[in-house]
Design goal:
Distance between the termini: 31 Å
Number of strands: 8
Number of domains: 2
Helix content: 25-40%
Strand order of the largest sheet: 5-2-3-6-7-8
CATH superfamily of the largest domain: GTP cyclohydrolase I, C-terminal domain/NADPH-dependent 7-cyano-7-deazaguanine reductase, N-terminal domain
Length: 206
Amino acid sequence: MSVDRARVERLTRELLEAIGEDPDRPGLKQTPARMAELYAEFFGGLSEDPASHLERTISVSRGPAPDTLPSGAVLLRDIRFRSVCEHHLLPFAGVAHIAYLPGEQVVGLGALVKVVETLATRPQVQERLGEQIADVIAENLDTRGVLVVLDAKHGCVTLRGGRQPESTTVTIAARGEFTDPIARAELISLIGSGAVARAPLTEHTE
């Protein structure tokens, strides 16, 4: 189901009135339409299947060395993403780092970016977002292990409450062989141990 733009416009007018504003004054007259466009962009992932981006795979055994299979991880760093926290509908944004241990099939790197973008464009919490990315990759690719590290700034921390503008949150989701901290230590180092060490760490593995 796609975002109901007309309804968002109506509700935005009601919200403006509820806070004591006049939605018909010049500065706010176009705000309901802008909010409808914004929400359609921010929550477009609700109507999209993230697994669909992983349907096209590439064989790595059919090439110059057909008997050779990958022995190490594929790591894609610094995937920029932004999402909206479901608690206060404030934005959070940062980078995602994704690694997986491939079998005979790999996926185009852009597909991993699409998985992140699809799941991020929904009302989210960072902890769940990382878990969902890991699950989609683990369940739809030929992998022996998946690691997802998210590092983000949250509007609910930087703009309200304690107002900590420099605070970031790091979460780790691991599947398969990467549930072993020793197995993922090299990847954490490649991602950048400084970023992980500076931020609060929430970790969940399966």
